[in-house]
Every structure is written in structure tokens, then in C-alpha cells.
Amino acid sequence: MSAVLPYSIAAAALVALGLFGLVVQAAVLRKILAFNLLGGGVFLLFGVVARRGAGAGATADPVPQAIVITGLVVAFAATALAVVLALRMHQITGAATIAEAAEDGFPDK
Amino acid sequence: MGGLVDWLLAALVLGAAAWTLAAPTGFAAVVGFVGFGLLVTLAWVRLGAVDVALTEAAIGAGATGVILLMAVVRLRGGAEEVSAATPGRAVMVAAGLLAGGVGLALALAVLALPDPAPGLAAAAMARRGELGLGNPVAAVLMGYRGLDTLLESVVLVFAVLAVWSMAPDRRWGGIPGPRFPRQEAGPLALLARLLLPIGLVIGIHVAWVGAEAPGGKFQGGTILAAMWVLAWVAGLVQPPAIASQAVRLALVAGPLAFLLAGFAGMALGEGFLAWPPGLAKPMILLVEAAMTLSVAAALALLVAGPPERAA
Amino acid sequence: MSGTTPGGWLLVLALALPVGGMLLAFALGGRTAERIALGVLGLGTVLAGMIAAEVYAAGAPLAYRLGGWAPPLGLRLQADGLAAAMLLTAALVLLAVALFGRAAQATPPGVQEARAPFTFWTFLLALAASLAAAFLGGDLFNLFVALEMLTFAALSLACLDGRPSQFRSELRYLFFALIGSVLYLLGTALLYGAHGTLDIALLAERAGADLPTLLAAALMTAGLLAKMALFPLHLWLPPAHAGAPPAASALLSGLVVKAAFVLLLRLWIWVLPPVPAGAGAPLLAGLGAAAILVGSLIALRQERLKLLVAYSTVAQIGYLFLMLPLVLAGDPEAAARAWLGGILQAASHAFAKAAMFLSAGLVAGALGHDRVAELGGAGRAMPMAVIAFGLAGLSLMGIPPSGGFTAKWLLLTAALGTGQWWWAAVILGGGLLTGGYVYRVLAGSLTAPPAAAPRPEPPAQGPERVALALALVSVALGLVPLASFGLVQIGRPILGGAP
Amino acid sequence: MTGAQALLVAAIAAPVLLLAACLWDGARRRMPGLLWLAPLPGLAAALLAADTTPLVLDAARLRFTLALDAPSALLLGAAALLWSAAGAYASRYMGRGPGAERFALWWLITLSGSLGVFVAGDLASFYLAFAAVSLAAFGLIVQDGTPRARRAGEVTLLLAVMGEICLLLAFALLAEAVQGPSLAIADAVAALPGSPARGLAVGLLVAGFGLKAGLVPLHVWLPLAHPAAPMPASAVLSGAIVKAGIIGLLRFLPADGALSDWGGILAGIGLLTAFWGVGCGIVQANPKTVLAYSTVSQMGVTVAALGMGMAMAAPGTGMAVAFYATHHVLAKGALFLAVGLAAGSGGWRRWLVLLPALILALGFGGLPGTGGALAKAAVKPQLGEGLVGLLAGLSAAGSTLLMLHFMRRLIALEAGGTADRPARGLLLPWLGLAAAALLLPWALYGAAGLGDPWEALGKDPVAALWPVLLGAALAAGLARQDRWLGAVPEGDLLLLTGKARRLGAACGAVAVRAEALLRAWPIAGLALMALLLALFGVMLAAAA
């Protein structure tokens, strides 16, 4: 059981790092990376939970494992979408951040 | 000395994460992230979750790394804008304190989790036989929590259409992504030609063994998608036009098969998403095959992006 | 509780129908997508009505055990009064928006398939599927998947116009929604680690006021608040909702935020023990009060009609949170009132706000702009749309005999009954400010058009009728005798007890 | 359902059905000509259905109750009569066309509410009717579309909504005070004196209803709105609509002495209002504004009588106050119609307007023989004694002065040519209503249980006459003092709100800036994390 302690701390630290990065990093790409670090922390926490629940012949509780597999796919889809949005924004406006800008207006139709 | 290995690995994971945040260039950061993904894969192995480790390697590090690398090449410049939008020291300190507070609370909460841990390992192991599956994770994904898997495969379809819908109107129906010149020679072409058949075999194998051993449709599908991306980047294949009926069908085959199987369970078995006794294994394999196809198609098309050229 | 009840199969159909419809619409494409959407949403409304009737008749929630597996190992679908009421609301709004979209989102002639219409119709079905999953789900991780479905569907609908300036605001929306999702998922990890299940009914029995549970609740609540855009986490909502085409805005403002709210109620009323919930509720209601006041004040000062309506959503979301401290105050009579008031507010706001966005879209489309100061002549050119806006506004203000009035009356008396008069003051002050911004729009559109202005093109009658019908439903909710709303109380846990 | 109960339903249903009929183009086009019909079922209800058994629908939960007590019946009848006459007048006055059709729509909504407040028997339907009459009046006021009308409409609407808020809160407190789910007004009134929030509830009721009735300092909308509306709308605004406030006070405040403390306060406010209206009115140039201030003053007297009745627990106060208000409904409504006629007629026909107007006008001061004198006699038990009696007499003198000022301003309106004859469609409603204002009180005095009208007038002729003479003398003395005209703007105290408006604008600007800051990405992120930790901390502290 002691093996989960390092990963517990790593998971908590990853969540903190990811949140910090998402809030303070300006570039969209860095935000996407930070989001993935945050997600990695959450999944690792599930891993800790799964490991703690090992038993009955399973090296880790299969239910959290399945949840992580589902979650990883969803996170990938979200990342892909964010990347596409960032690329389109960059392509059209040349912008690399999502800071509030003056042109965030609502042009006449 | 398992403890030391685990501490070291955890430290490396955090180091890679810190590098990803602090790296001087976007490219370096993405490379750091791929490294992070591989280290986390190792962590999953250490945590006894080999299925997750495979998925993490295939999707978390692999596929995510590929789209981020492709993005970093196209997202150039903007350094001034970034530095202008970077918050001042006060916000930095506040964010650090608050994020640290959240991390601290989380660590305390994890330490306060009950011992022995409540969980469903025993139940999941005990009843997997009813599905004819040896791998308990597969039993969770296809059996106990089948609805999650069904909805998640639907999410992939959502995501593909969402990505497509970001295209300009006039490109609708066209071919996704940039065109890569055909590499007749060179390392990439060689790699593609060599790896492609091997990768295909491995991908299908991983998907196939998922019922008994670690593996499954997501991992297998990802490997298949990766092979296709390789061939695409090497200029050997072209993405299909998004208007193509075959592409659409490939994308929905998995979830649709799952849904139909669900109704079959309603007619023949205990209810929606129940696998009829006796038929469970063959039906699961059939649905998994369709799902592997759909997952591969979805992941590949997510990497390719919105349509950029006329068909 | 975990077994399948008679009529449980309705829940399967309510979820499978839009999922299957979405997959088929995506595969077959083009105009077929529109046809499938109209058919599926029509059927979905019938199904939602049947579910509500079944729950009401049985006086108990419907449940369906998926795959024959019992929780905690398996998943279940369940429809209590809350789910049935929200499902019916969603079905009606979706159907109305689909009818509205027949004109606005038609595939242009001569094209087999076009981006915006195809995306609209497919994601309309996707949204229906996501909402059904969010309302009917009985497992917290299953609900996470539903939330993610919702995020993708909502984001694509918000992007429908494909305007260059939109990508920035949609990215803000996506990032904030993703943070919300991840925080929610983090909470489920802790809950599973602490209690070995994510089934809501089982968690209600097992969860105590321990450290992991409380942190999980805080994480999940924060995540859901980010998705609901509760002040001060509303940064993404005004541009996203105002920048979308009217049909999409109607769905985003009317329905999408409500799904996260239902999850929040599941967490706070079912899972969390009453003592910590009672302590946290005033904090949320305080933010709700701030949302009402600040959102309304900002709406009052908007120069663009659609932004005004979007800020009105920021404000109206606040009302939903006022029910929490009232339901959790420990007075059963007041709790029942506040519960009904809150859900009625969610439903009547869904109808009213959808009507507002649709009619605002019609006005903007006909005038060629949506500047509040230059709406003159709109009342003459499209009286039905302006009347729809006005009726919806009356409901938001809480003028009788509207659904908004009944909702606010119930919250008001619950607030006074539990001695929390300050929420009453907020409810009333918010009504006054709401009146202010609704008046600005109505007064503007009822003045004569400027002499030089070109005569606005009157919109087609069909869409105008849809907007008016939605507004009328929002008003008519206030005419339904309160006794018939017993539906929403079905399956609500009485404080401290099991559901 | 008995026939009488059916009449109660019909009183509300008639305008609502006509309103619904407006969905059809043909009916809508004809509607301006049909307005006079809409209040007739209400009139019939007043005559035949007074004190009938209340009609209760859906007794289970949300009770929908219709009831008509005697004071309400009196006011309902008068209001219905005025609405009918003004409706007939409006048919000619507004002409035809989209403008008149729109006017008819607002008219019908307002009418349904105006009659509804007299017959609604439960809190919910009363509130609904009150909201209809308060808010829909906006449409009548802004009919002309001039900036002045718009401003008047906006002030009215703002104050009306604030009044609604006061009432909503008060009703919520009343509903809380009632044991059980009943929403009947009778139960609420019975529970009010024992309610823990008695003071707050009564204060809110007085504010909400007083606003409608024009009590100082909440009267500011009235002198703006009444003159701005078209003539027939002014007539119903001043005659019938303000009575929604009076009937509210009458029906919700128990007159049996349970609230004697509040009676004194009401009497004080009422008397202040009575003199305030006179003071502001005599410096107005526009005859309609003078009439509006006279309404303020008269409502002050009405409320003073009610307050004294509550303080003294005088039996019959409800009837007496209703009688006083009934006279005002008819007479004030008639006078507004007269203003519209005076300008359009010349020669001898002008006297068809001016002479009855003079009699009605002096009636407000209590000129013996008029309906006004009977009205004064009716509230004598409440306002006849001691200091209050003296003040009431002085206010009657003020009324005489004010009404003579009104007559002077009316005559000053440009007369038409000698050949100009007033349209029959305008003249007949006016003459009918004027006759009703003069004669009906004689018939109703006995019917209302107040005694023999002849006896009442003969009792103390000196006390009845001195205010008239004093007022006339003052009027003669001030006859040429026109330099004060316009010294007080319409809506007097409204001047003081400029600072409040600027403060509100400043608050709005601050909110906009603060909100823009909160929308910055890093700040929102910080807020999210802070909220998370705060929530966790609060819950942890509570659990520990």
C-alpha cells in the first residue's frame, strides 16, 4: 500500500501545477498543455484509488481503470477540439492568446 | 526497494510536468509533455493498471503528442501578445497560493481516504465470467458500465463533427488537414513502409486480446490511427473527403452496433445493454470490432482536423 | 430503488432515441438530418410527456437497471420528478427551436449538404441526447460523460455562425468548461475512493461529512458553477450566448446551463449530508444574489440586444441558487415550496429565455442590427416577435400571471417562512432591475422608426409564432394550479432521510 | 354557481373576452366602438351581487376566490359607470385606426384589473388584478407618444413596479401569517394583527396602496400621468384607477380598532396629502394638472377618514369611506371629460360644459345640495370632531379654492367659435356622467346605510357652509395672482430625485467596470479556485 503514497502526492501536485498553468499561462498552446497536466493529475488520482482497491486477484480495482480509459479518450477529444479552435483563431486573427481584446465585439449582421 | 523506484518516478513525472509549464519554447514544452506521458505510462504499470498504461501510451502521450506537435508547427509568433497577456506578479502569487491550496487539500483528502479501501474489485472479478471475458477492465467497459462506453464512443462522433464544423463554409465536404508531399525516400517513408504492416497487425491484436488480457478497442484503435497518420504524413495516403459516406459510416459503426446490441439485450436478455447469455462473447467481439474501426477513424480524423481543401 | 420499475423502458428510449437519431443523421447527412431531427424531437416530446405522466401516476421515480447489473457495479437510469420535469421542459424547447430552425437553418437549395445546417441539426439531436443523459443518469461518472457530451454539443452550436471573432470567445468557453469538467471528475475520484461507488442513491446512504467527501463536493460544485457561469465565473457566457445564431442561443441559455444545475442539485440535495450542505448553501446563494444584481445592472447598460439578453441569463441563473439555503433550512413546508419554486424558475426561464433569444434574433435579422437604442419601428414591423419578447420579459420580472411570478412567489414565501428575509429583498430588487432592461427594449421597439431608416423586412410568420408560443408557455406555467406541480416533489429526499 | 356569482365572473370575463376577441382583425377594428360595453357586467354585478356568497374555485391549494362586499360593490358600480361613459367618450375622441386599436387593447387590460380589484377575494387574484391596472395604465398614459407622455409613463411604471414589489412582499408576509394554505383575503386580514411582522406588513401595504392612491410623498407620478393621457384615459385614471389603492387599504386594513396606531398615522398622512394637493394645485396652469392635484388632495381626505375610522374603531367606516370615494369617481371622471369638451365648443353650448362643471367642482368643497356635500356628510363621524374636524374643514375650503382655480383655468382655455358644437358622442357621456355625479349620491346615501340624506344635510348647515365661503373668498382674493403659475412643476418632489439618478448611474458605471475586471481570464481563474477553497473551508468548519 505504501507504493501509492508517492503517486498520491504527485497527483495532487499535478492538479496544482495544471490549475496554476491554466490560470497564468497566456499562450493558448500552453493552456492546452496545462489542461492535460491537470487531467493527468486527476487520472493519476484514479490510479491511486484503483491501486488502493486492489484485491480478489486484481492488481488494481478495474472500475476506476475503466473510468480512466473512458476519461482519457474524452480528454483527447477535448484537446483536439481546443487545438483546432486555436489554429483557426491563429489563422484568421493571428492571435495566440485568449486575452480579452477590443475586437471581441458583436459586429452587425 | 519498490518504494524508492516509486518516489523517483513520481519526482520525474512532476519534473516533466514542471518543464512542460516552464519550457522556453512551445516545441520544447510539447516534447516535455510527451515525456511526461511516457513517465505516467510507467506509473500506471507500477500502479498495476496495465490497460490504462496502454491507453495512456497510445492516447495520452501518443495521439495527444502528435496533434500538439502538429499544432506547435502552425502556431508561430505572437510572443509580444503572449507577454502582454501574461498576468503580473500579484496574480501569479495569488494563483500559486490558491493552486497550492487546492493541491494541499487534495493531498490531505487522499491521505484521509478510508483503509481498507472500499471498491468493486471483488465484485468485478467475480462476475466477469457471466460475460465470458477474462479481463475485468473489459468486463467493466463492455458489461457493467456499458452505457459509459457507449456514450463515450458517441462523444468521439460529437468531437469529430465539432472539429469539422470549425471549417470555413466553402470548405465543407472537402479533405481535412494539410497535404503532405509524397516521400519516396528518406527515413519517414522507410519508417512508414516498415511500420505500417507491423502496426496494423499489432493494433488488431491489441484490440483482439482485450477481452482476455490487457488491451482493447481504444488502444488498438489508437495504434491503427497512428499508423494511418504516419502514412498520411509520409504522403502515402490522403485523408478522405468528409462528405464521403464511407467515412461517416465508419465513424458511427461502433456506437451504432453497440446501440443495436443494447436493444438485442432488451429483446433476448435481461434488458438494455445486457448481453444475452451464451451469445455474450461473440456479440461483444463483434461490437468491439466495430468500435475499434470507429475509434481508429475518429482519432485519425481528429488528428487531421477540419477540411482545408476541396475534394 | 435500484431495480427496474414498470415503465422503466421509457427511460431507455428517451436516451437511445436521440443518440441513435444523432448517429443516423450524421451518417446520412444533408437534408435527411433535418428530417430525422424533426421526427426524433417530436417523438422525444411524446416520450417525455409519457415519462412525466408515468412518474406522476406512480407517485414514485421510474428506474431502469442497465444490462441487468445492479449498482454499485452496474449503472441505472432514473427519472424522479425533477428529471421528468426538466426532461419535458427540454423536449418542448428543443422541439420549438427545431421548428424555428426550419426556416433559419434550412440547407440552401442546390446544395447537398452545407456546414451550418448540417451541424445545427446534428447537434440539435446531440444536445437532446446529452440532456437526456444528464437528467436521467444515476451515476456521477455517467453524468460526467453526459456533461462532456453537452460541452461539445453546446460549443459547436455556439460556433455555428463561423464568424472570425468568435473563435476567441469559444476558446474561453471551452477552457472554462474543461476546467469545470476536470474539477468535477476529480471530485468523483475522491468519492469513489472514499465510498466505493458513484451511484447517487448509494452515495446518499454512505456519504458522511468526512474530509474526502467535503473536498469532493467543493471540487464538483466549483466545476459545475464554472459550467453554469454563476457570477463571478460568468466570463464566457455573454459572448458565447450572444454570438451564436438565435436558435442556438435559445438552447444554450435556456437549457444547457440547467443541466449542470440538475447535477448540482443531485450533489447538494442527495449526496451531501445536510449539515455541511446547510453551511455551504448561503455562500452559493450569496453568489446567486450577486449574479442577480450585477447581471441585471450590466444588462441594463448593454447597447446590444443579444448581449442584454445574455446578461439577463447571467442574472436569472442566480435565482436558481436562492433555493438551496431555503430547501436546506430544515422547515419541510418551506423546503417543498422552495424546491418547487426553484424548479419552476428553471423551467419558466427556459421557455422565456428561449422566446427572448428567438424574438431578439428575428428583430435583429429584420433590422439588420441589434442596437438597443435603434430598435424603433420593430414593434410595427413584427408585432408578434415584440409581444413574445414582452411576455417573456414579464415572466422574467415575475409579473403575474406568469410562471416566473409563481416561482418567485414560492421562493419569496419560503424565504420569509424560514426567516431569511434578505433573499426576499434580492428577489424583489432583481425583479425591478429586470423590469428596467425589459422596458428599455420594449419602449425602444414601440417608438416610431427613424424617418431615414429602410423599412425592415417582416420575418416569416412561422418563426415568429414559435417565439410567441414559447413565451406563452412561460406565462401559462403561472396559471397551472400549484397542486399539479406535485410531480416535482416525487423522489426528493426529505432532509436527513434517504430518498 | 348562483346567478350572482356568475355576474362576478362576468364582471372580469367581459373585458378579458373582448381582449381575446382582438386576436381577430375584424373584432380589433371594431373594438374602440365597443369599449362602453365592457364594464356593463361589472355594473350589473354591483347592483345585483353585493354581499353574495364568495365563489371559491379550486379550494384545494391555490384558491381562486371572487367576493363582493358592500363597500366594494359601491365602488365597483361607480367605477363601471365611469368606465362605460369614458369608453363611449373614447370611441368618439380617439377616432379609428391603429392608434385607437392599440388604445383599446390597453384600455381593456386596465379595465379588467380596475374592476378585478373590487371582486377578487384571494391574495393571488387581487395581486394579478392590481398588477394589471397598475402596469397597463402605462399604455394609456403614453398613447400620444410625446416625450412628455413618455416621461410620465416611465415615472408611473417605475413607481408602479415599486408599488408591486411592496405589495408582493406584504402579501407574502400575510400568506405566512395565515395558518394553513388559505390565500383568502379575509383570512389574511384576520391574521394580520397577530402576525409577528405586523408592522412591516402594514407599512408595505400602506406604501403599495398609498402609491396608487397618490399619498404624499408617493404621489409624484399622479400629476404627471393624469394630464399626459388622452382625455378619457385621464378620466378613468383619476376617477377609477386610483381607487385601486383606496379599495386595497379598505379591504386589507382591519377597521375594527386592531390597528388603531396605524389609523393615526394614516390620518396624518391623509391630511398632509389633502393640503399638499391644494398647495401644489393652485399654482398649476394646465386645468388637467389642477384636477390631478385635486385628486391627490381628495384621496388624502379619503385616507384621513379611513385612518380616523381605524383609530376610533368607528362602525360603518368602510361604507362611509367608500361612499366618499364613489362620489369622487363620478365627479372627477366627469370633470376630466369636461376639459376635453370645453375647448371644442363655443357660444351658448359652452355653458353646457361650464355650468355643470362649476356645480361639480364646488361639490368637492361641500357646496350644500351637491353629491359632494353628501360625501362630506358621510365621513363626518370620522372627520367631524375637534382638531381633525377643523383641519378637514380647512381642507374643504382649500378644495373650493382649488376647484375655482380649476374653473378659471378651464375658462381660460381657448373657446371655440360660436358655431362650434361639441360632438354628440362626447357631449352625451359627459352630461350623463355629470348628472350621475350630482344625483346618484342622493340615491345611494340611504342605500349605503348612512341614513337620510336630507337629514344629514340639514343637521349643521354652518359647519357645511363655512369652508365653501372661505374658499370662495380666498379665490376671489387670489384671482389676479397669476404670477405664481408654474411655480411648482408637475410632480413637485420629483425634482429631488435628480441626485438619486446620478448616484444610480454612478453605481451602474462602477458595476460595469468591476464586471469587466472579473471577466479577465486570470481573475476568473483565481475566483474559481478561491470559491472552491472557500466552499471547502465553510463546509469543513460546519462539519467539524
Summarize the structure.
The complex is a heterotetramer of chains A (109), B (311), C (499) and D (544). Chain B has 311 residues and is mostly helical. Chain B has helices at residues 2-22, 26-46, 50-74, 79-85, 89-111, 121-127, 136-144, 146-164, 186-209, 217-233, 245-268, 280-304; strands at residues 175-176, 307-309.
Key descriptive features of the protein:
heterotetramer; C: 499 residues; mainly alpha; 3 domains; D: mainly alpha; 2 domains; two-stranded antiparallel ribbon; 24 helices; 2 strands
Describe, in plain words, how this protein is organized in 3D.
The complex is a heterotetramer of chains A (109), B (311), C (499) and D (544). Chain B is mainly alpha-helical and 311 residues long. Chain B contains twelve helices and two strands; from the N terminus they run ααααααααβααααβ. Chain B folds into two domains: 1-86; 121-311, no CATH class. In chain B, strands 1-2 form a two-stranded antiparallel ribbon. In chain B, α8 (146-164) packs parallel to α12. Chain B is globular. Chain C folds into three domains: 1-138; 139-272; 298-499. Chain D has two domains: 1-253 and 498-544, no CATH class; 256-496, no CATH class. In chain D, strands 1-2 form a two-stranded antiparallel ribbon. The longest helix of chain D has 31 residues, at 147-177. Chains in contact: A-B, A-C, A-D, B-C, B-D, C-D. At the B-D interface, α5 of B face α24 of D. Chain A: This is Na+/H+ antiporter subunit C. Chain A: Belongs to the CPA3 antiporters (TC 2.A.63) subunit C family. Chain A: One of its GO terms (cellular component) is plasma membrane.
